[in-house]
């Protein structure tokens, strides 16, 4: 019977949806098992609802019979926030320690050689009538941090000596070509060359050498005072004022019409004087910076000057003679 033939007004007792033979066969086969099933009945001495569990602890048996490796403590390696090791920092630290060690070795050599030093400047031959008067060794007597400055000053003094010599040669050429004031320029240039080369070494290079060697405030002051006039002298020589004994821009320009070759030599001399003035000014600032870093001062210079005068044997002898004469004159009266 199809779904359309069902009478909705029929008696519900007469309509049995489970009357279908397929449903009835399935329910008959399973109702017997459900009727006889007891969930609380023990099966084989055990409850059906309580499964058996193994309460013994689990054991993990090793798959290899070899003993575990021994623990070795590794050194701690510091790392920066970016995950890079401090290998470069360690390398810089080693280089710094090596530089300090080299500095100490240089200082030790300088101290050891100071007791056995022999005058070596100016480097004159042994058969010469005049022997070296000073001991000059920048690598041994000057500290490492000041050696570069001292070498530059020494090269500057050599350039100054060469300029005086070239000024003398130019003055000879000026006199030979009949230039204006050639004789006066030659005579004064000879005086400059003979007098100023040794005086410049003694008056301003030697004081700065001693100042860099021992941080002497007195030698610093002496260098500043004399080197200032040295710069003024270089500027005047570069100008080439007549009858001043130097070949510079002014007398070189006046010689162009007379002899261009001599005028060219005079312009070269003027250039050397100008470079000397510029380099001297720059070196003066550099030495002043070293002076500020060394802790030197005018008060220390006064103290050093007083100690130097008091420790001078000639001054001591003169003072002793003065005191002795005063005592003798006092006893007479």
UniProtKB/TrEMBL annotation:
Region (Disordered): 1-94
Keywords from the UniProt entry: Membrane, Transmembrane, Transmembrane helix, Transport
Subcellular location, record wording: Membrane
Membrane spanning residue stretches: 152-174, 186-205, 217-241, 261-284
Membrane topology, from the record: Multi-pass membrane protein
Pfam families reported for this sequence: SCAMP
CDD domains according to UniProt: bZIP (cd14686)
GO cellular component, one term: trans-Golgi network membrane
Statement: the UniProt record of this protein carries the keyword Membrane: yes
Record GO biological process: protein transport
Signal peptide: none
Bias type Polar residues, positions: 46-57
Similarity section: Belongs to the SCAMP family.
Name this protein carries in UniProt: Secretory carrier-associated membrane protein
Organism: Hydra vulgaris
UniProt gene name: SCAMP1
